[in-house]
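HOLO CASE FILE
Compound: zinc ion
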Amino acid sequence: MLELPDIEILRENLASRTSERMVREVRLLWDGLLGSGSSPVSALLGQRVHTFVRKGALLALATERGAHLVIDLAPWAWMWHGASAHAATRTTALVIGLDDGNDTRIIVPGPRRTAQVWLADDPMDVPLWAGLGPDPLDEEFTWEAFRKALRAGRRRVKEILTDPRVAPGIGDAYADEVLYRVAISPLRYSHTLTADEGQALWRAVPDTLSRAIEALRERTQGELFEKEIRDFLQMHGKAAMPCPRCSTPIAEVRYDDRVTHYCPRCQRGTPRA
Ligand SMILES: [Zn+2]
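Model generated. C-alpha cells follow.
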C-alpha cells in the first residue's frame, strides 16, 4: 500500500513534469473513479497546472485558477506520465492530456478498483481530505495533539499511528518502522507510555518518514514508479529474518486486517489490557 513517503516522491516527480502545462484533454475511462460530490473532471480543460500538493497519502493536482483534483490512490492505483502517443491501457482510469504532448494518467488495476478522485475549488471541500489530521511533516503535527491521541481511550500504539485523524499517510509499513526506531512494542496500549516514550514516538514519526523520502529520492532519481520501494525498511516485510540490532527473528502479528512486524526482544513492553 502506498504511504506518505511514496506519495511525496510521486508529488515531487509529477510537479516537476507538469508545472505550467495547459490541460488540453480530459478523458474519464472508468466512471467509478469519480467520487461523490465531485465537479465534472472536464472542468480542468483549458486550465494550467500549478503544482501537485499532498496531505497524508492524498495527492492533489492544483491548477493556477485554484481548482484541486484530489487523488486517493490507495491501496492499488498509481500515476503514469508519458507521451500522449502511447495508447491508454484497459487499467487506465483517467487521462489528463497536457499541451507538451504528454499525459498524466491514473492507473487502477482491477479487481479491487478502489481509487477515487474529486474535483473541487478547495481541497477542504472534499470530506476525505478535510477529515485528515495534521500532516506528520507539517508543523501542525504537534506534541500536544499527539499526546491527546495517545491518551484518548484504550488503543494499541500501532492503531494510533495508523489512524488518519492522528498521523495521516502512515500504514502498516511505516508504523512498524517508527515503532522499531523507538523500541516500543506495537502491542503496547498507548495510555501505558511514559511521557518520554510518547515524545520519542512523536519525534520518530516525521524523522522516519523524512529518512524514507530521502531513501526513495535516491532510488527513483526523479522517475515515477509503479510499485512501492521498500528494500531499505528494517522491520516491515521481514518476518522471521534477524533483527538488525539483536539478531532475534522478527515476529509477525496479524489482527484487524493488519500485518505487523516487530522485534520481540528490542520492542518489549507488556501488552497490558
Ligand atoms: Zn531486536
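CASE NOTES: Strands lie at 23-28, 49-55, 58-63, 68-72, 78-83, 92-98, 102-107, 116-120, 251-255, 258-262. Helices lie at 4-18, 127-130, 143-151, 157-161, 172-181, 195-220.
CLOSED: yes
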